Structure formats: structure tokens, C-alpha cells
Amino acid sequence: MRSTSTTPCSPFSKRPASCRSLASADPAEPPSKGSTELKKAVEAFWAGRSDLAQLEATAAELRAATRERLASLGLGRADSAIPESFSFYDQVLDAAVAVGAIPARFEDLRAADGTIGLPAYFTIARGEGDRAPLEMTKWFDSNYHYLVPEIGPDTSFSFSDDRLVRDVAEGVAAGFVTRPVIVGPVTLLALAKAADGAPDDFDPLSRLDDLLPVYVELLAALKDAGAEWVQLDEPALVSESLPASVAQLADAAARALAVLGGSSDRPSILVAAPYADLGEVFPVLAAAPIEAIAVDLVRGGVPAQVPGLEGKALVGGVIDGHNIWRGDLAAAADKLEALGGLGAASVSASTSTSLLHVPHDVDDETKLDARLVSWLAFADQKVAQVVTLARGLAEGRSAIAAELDAASAALADRLSAPGVRDGAVRDRALTDADFSRASYEEREAAQEALGLPALPLTTIGSFPQTGDIRQARARFTKGEIPVEDYEEFLRREVASVVSLQEDLGLDVLVHGEPERNDMVQYFAENLDGFDVTENGWVQSYGSRATRPSILWGDVSRPAPITVGWSTYAQSLTTAHMKGMLTGPVTILAWSFVRDDQPLAVTANQVALALRDEIADLEAAGIAIIQVDEPALRELLPLKKADQPEYLQWSVDSFRLATGGAASGTQVHTHLCYSEFGVVIDAIRALDADVTSIEAARSRMEVVADVAESGFDHGIGPGVYDIHSPRVPSVEEVEALLRRAVDEIPLRQLWVNPDCGLKTRGYDETVASLRNIVEATRRVREDVSVAV
Length: 787
Hints:
6-stranded parallel β-sheet, 22 strands
């Protein structure tokens, strides 16, 4: 391998993706023409508008286009530099299905020969009827959601899906010898949860020896298909936030690689463990019978020399796969040279992580300022940087001197540009008092004036973004309708949502957010220091994607952002209307953030802008304000030594944003798709009056963590999984509520969905909310004496 990417490639685009940058679209806002081919094909198949053959044909075309695109960027057609990792939905689900690790409730979906076809695959991902889908959570410290495997003592492993093998053969037939990529056995088990019915002390990692023979079989099949290399992605090995300890994971890796590497019928093996420093795992990999190790040199340092590297290739991840800034090529070349000093047989250049996390091509952005564009590198540009560095390794630095100088000049220009540093923002003085409110007891007493019932009913914020909303926004953006007509349309939408909530019987209402294309982008468009893309889509989960904004300079709020729509909605009802804001950590997590200063500094700048917005909402008479922080857990560093500092500044930024709110103002926050037990102390430290959290998809498991922790503020564990098209029955919601009531004092409990309703349709939303209201009525009747 001369140049490579340690990443999967996923072609959710008519213009092919570069190394797993995924350009599907959130239904709230369509991306550019031609960038939704697979999304359209998958969703048409789900809706019954096309058949399996049509879907497979579209997927094959996209895989072919992706290989051609990567070759045109300089990756070799026949040297395994191009990764092969097309996915219809999720990379972890791909691995679980390949080895037959599916829950018992889906076993009947297997074909007679034991294989698991694509319709079954989608059912496992999305659920069906009374069959709940797999849980979903965040992939390490990213905004990508993966499906959590369920594995028990009796889970039967077998080679159940050869799709990756067929994809490799398809590439070979077209003249490409690609490198198949699959989640490795240790990470697959380490990320899994115990299946229903498993003993309390069961650890899925204990099934490693049973799983390995299936991976051996898969490797043999890949070799037979023409693969010369295979990449095993094992990021669990660098995480200290998983149930298994680092020592347990390292031991598991040694055992697994001894078996896989010891097989005589296999391709060469590259193990990649990105997102953090390899630490004590590096000697384990060096000693293993494998041919190559990928090292993330953006998040980690150059490791020390250890025995076993002789004869192995080292793949230096020196181009940041997690952000969109143009790389410092001179510094990257220095790291590669240092890596070359460890005594390995060869060194290759690579991205640090999967390019799943960045958009396709900065050349698609026609409206960004040219100066800003010169500082950026999307997936295609990152691949070009890898190819440049590979040429430098092969021919010497002098061969790439012009490219090194251009990259250095862009970095210097970025640091000196107007707006990157704003004295008015940096000179705003802060005191300790700015980070705290009155005691919770005082606030709770003051908020009794809100007059809320037991088990208050609310939603998280957004309502369905219909085709009419998207069409109106698109026409307004293109200048086809005047602002007056667009705002009148939005007023009708808000009025409809408010009326619907009143009819349903909700207690605290929202305005539905029809004016917002995205919960982060909306604020980015109204804050200085940000810019937004036209086509910068990256996958969130399944066929959904988000378009992260670019935070390039110091942040300030030139004018109120949400006050007008919140006060208009409040004027339509006597019920309480929530003001809806996105919190500072989430704005950072779901943006491409400047990397030239500590995140804590940037977070406080965003927090101060939100603090000013809260003050204006209060002045306008809004008594309940939600500051969403769904990404709080997401940014938690993988290494424990780095976690206290992160938790301190992330909590401080939220408290800075909300610290000026009056005692009678009820501050809510929302978190979703996270392991809450890991950050429960941080959630408590946020000191929000009410915290709503995802709980339905995990069947209310989180309430045990909440109860055990002694959490005493308001809490709204979700009762409706909005990431599935299923409508939960009254009985299902009632059972979830009763579990919550059994574990948590009634005075604390709220009733709400898991997340916002933006991605759902109105029919399923209304049906689900009606069932939630009825289930809440039943539970309220039973607890009325206690109230």
C-alpha cells in the first residue's frame, strides 16, 4: 500500500463519495441535485414504490462510480488503496448481519438457507409492528449513530450475509482490487448489549471464541473473491468509556488476531483503531500476526518503538478525517517521517479516521467566500492530500514542495483573517456568578406558579417538516416568493401546530420550528463567526444526514434569533409555550469547529450569545425555555484522563448560557442517544430544572441509572422512539410510564417523546401522541391519590 485511506467508502451520491462521506439528506432540507440517489432508492424500496432488483441496481452503479472517482483522485486501481465498504444503512449492522448476530425476535426473517437478506436487514434496523428495532447510539465521539447489536449466551453465529464478498468480486470484475473493510470482532462485541433474557452478569465479549470462526470463514471468502488486503476496524481498542477495560480489550485483541492472523487462507490484514491514541494497545498489535497497523496521528501521538514491527506496514493517519480544515502538510510529513523511524517495513499516508464525518467536495460550494474555501478540505480534497503525502514518501519532500508551501500559506492566512479574532467578543468580562442560578429548591418553589399537572405532557421541540414546508423554504431561498408570503406561510404552520397540541391535550406546547432547517444551522445562520454550506451533507444514521455548519471565527449574536416566533406562538394559546434553543456543546459538536483555540473558549462564546437570547425571551414573557444538549455525551473524550477537563468546560458553558435566567423561568434541556449513566454527574451539574432523555428505544433502561444516582431535578424519560416509523400502542407507552413511576418520584416526572418529531410524518406523529396522552391519562388516574 503506497497511499491509502483507513476508512470505509459509502456512495450515497450520484456523484460518488470519497471514503464514506455520505450525502443523503435530512427531509427538512433537500441537498443539491444528484446527491440523493441511494437515499431515494432505499426510501422508495421501503415505501413499496420499487423492488429489490431496482435497489440493488442503483447500489451497484454507485459502488462503481465511487471506485472510479477514488481512482481519478489518485488512489490505485489494483493496489488495495481503495476501501470497499458500501453500506445500505450502518457499518455495525453490516458486521452483525454478516456473522448472523441478530436478536431472537428477528430469527424468522432468515431465509431457508440461513442467510439474512436485505429486507430482513432493514427490518432489524427500523423495526416492524411489535418488533422493536435495534437500539441506536453514537459512534464513539462523533455524530454518527450506529445500531447496537444484541448478543446473548445462546446467540448463534454463522456466515449469514456475503454482501461484502460480492462487492469485492464486483470490483475485481471492473478492474479494481479493493480493500474490504468490516468492523472487527472485538469492537462488534464490545459495542453490543446483552440480549433480553441474558444473565445480569453476561458480557457479550465472552462470546469472542465462538465468533472468531465466522470471521475466519469471511476472510477466506474475501480472499477467494480477489481481496489482497482486508481492513478490520477496531476503534473499541482505544476507548476507555466502554464496559470492558483497556486490559480486557487488549487481551481480546491479542486472542482474536492470533486466530485470524494464524489462518492460512486469508488476505493480508490491516487493523485500524482510530479516534484516540493507541497507547498500550500498540505493542499488542505489533506482536500480532498481521501485516499492517493504522495509527491515528491526529488524535494520538507517534508511538514508541516496540518489538514486532519488522515486516509490518504502518499506516499514518495524518490528515484529519473528523474535521474540514485544510491539513498542515508540512507537519503531516514530519509525523510520517517520525513513524518511519520505528523500524517498520514501510509507511503509508492516510486519513486519521473514516471520512464518513466530512462532506464530499468543497468545489460543490458555490456560495462560500473564496477565502474561507481556501482554508477547507472536504473528502475529495483530503484524499488528494493523502496522495500528495504518499508522493512525498516515495520521491522526497522536494517533489511536493509547492503543495507544502501552499498549505502553509493557507494556514497563515486563516489565522490573520478579519473576524477570526474579535476584540469585542474576547473582552466580555465574566465572573463566577455568571455560571450559576439560585438553588434548585428556590427555583422549584418559584415555578409552582406555572400550574403544571402531575406528569406534564410536552414534546421535545420540532414537529414534522412536511413537503410543503420544504418546498416553501426552497422557493423562498431561491427568491421565488417574497418574505411577506413566506412568513405568512410559517405563521399558518405555527398556528396549526399550536392548535393540534391543544386538541391533543398537551400541557406545555412548542411552536414546531417550521422556520428552522436544522437545529444547529438555524443558529449558525444568525450568529457571527459561522458560515453554512449548500451541499455539505454527512450521514447521521440510515438514510438521514445533517449539514454541519462551519464555525470559523469568534462568535457573537448581532440580533435576537428566536424571540419573534416564540412570542407569536405564545399569543395563540393560554398554555405555556417553550422557547427553543440549541445548547453550546451541541452547536460545537454538530458543526465543523475552528481548531486554532481550545474548545472551551469557543463554547463560552456561543454560550454568551445564547445567554443574551434567553434574556430577550424572558423579557418577552416566555416562562419555559429549553436549551438542548443532545451532544453532551457525544464529545466525551475516549481517554479517561481527558474527560474531567471536557466535562468541566461543557457543563460550564451550559451554566453560562442559562445562568442569567430568573428563578421563575423553568429551564429545560434535552439529551438523546447516549449512555447516560456515564455522564449522569455532568447532567446533574448542568442544573437544568427539567431534563428530557431518550429512553423508549432502550425500553426505559436509563431510569435505573437516574434513580440510583439520586438525581432530584425534573426528568422526562422518552416514551416514543421517533427514529422508527412504528406507532407505539397505548399499552406500550403505559408500561414504560409505569416503570418510570416505579423508579422515580412522581414530582420529577415529565412525559415526552425521545427526540424532536422533525423526521416523522403527521399521521404517525398524531397517532403516537394520542396514544401517549391516553397512556398518561391512565397512569395519572392511578397516581391521583398520591398527587
